[in-house]
Amino acid sequence: MEEKKIGSDLPAEVGISYLPHHGELPAPGRATEGSAGYDIYAACDEGVLINPGDVKMVPSGFKLSVPRGYEAQVRPRSGLALNSRIGILNSPGTIDSDYRGEVGVILYNFGSEEFLVRRGNRIAQFVICKLPDVCLVELDRLDVTKRGDGGFGHTG
Question: Which domains does the chain have, with CATH numbers?
Answer without folding.
Answer: 16-130 (2.70.40.10)
